[in-house]
């Protein structure tokens, strides 16, 4: 994961939830989460808030890939629209985010969360993201 994170430390929220960045390249990212009891809702399945977090996170990564060592890019989420399509109680899920395009400062992304074992679609989302100052440039800004 360290190579994928390009020298950036995991966020506190990432550490709390326990997801792992497994792919990060221009316009696409993937994170994985192995479901544990703290991820489940009262019904015993993966909480919708955890699904939304994975979608928001992976779309943000898809919009902020940077190839310049020591630099980073950041976005803030402007809007998210989601659909919950399935449930899962155990195993690992994979969230994939894709940059759709947009302007210089605001971009759109699409995301999906699927079960890793059989690829069943659990949730999907689209979001709009705004680059932080300097992050609209592909080379980012010094960390």
UniProtKB/TrEMBL annotation:
GO molecular function terms noted in the UniProt entry: fatty acyl-CoA hydrolase activity
Domain of life of the native organism: Bacteria
Positions of the Thioesterase domain: 43-119
Pfam hit, one: 4HBT
InterPro entries, A to Z: ACOT13, HotDog_dom_sf, PAAI_dom, Thioestr_dom
Residue stretches spanning the membrane: none
Assigned keywords, A-Z: Hydrolase, Plasmid
NCBIfam families the record matches: unchar_dom_1
Similarity section: Belongs to the thioesterase PaaI family.
Protein name per its UniProtKB record: PaaI family thioesterase
Organism field: Azospirillum argentinense
């Amino acid at each position: 994961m360290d190579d994928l994170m390009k020298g950036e430390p995991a966020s506190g929220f990432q550490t709390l939830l326990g997801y792992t960045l497994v792919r990060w390249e221009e316009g696409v990212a993937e994170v994985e989460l192995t479901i544990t009891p703290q991820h489940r809702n009262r019904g015993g399945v993966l909480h919708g808030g955890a699904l939304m977090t994975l979608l928001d996170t992976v779309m943000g990564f898809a919009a902020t890939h940077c190839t310049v060592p020591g630099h980073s890019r950041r976005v803030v989420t402007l809007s998210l629209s989601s659909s919950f399509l399935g449930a899962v109680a155990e195993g690992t899920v994979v969230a994939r985010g894709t940059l759709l395009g947009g302007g210089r400062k605001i971009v759109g992304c699409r995301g999906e969360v699927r079960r890793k074992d059989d690829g069943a679609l659990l949730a999907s989302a689209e979001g709009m993201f705004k680059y932080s100052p300097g992050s609209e440039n592909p080379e980012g800004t010094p960390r």
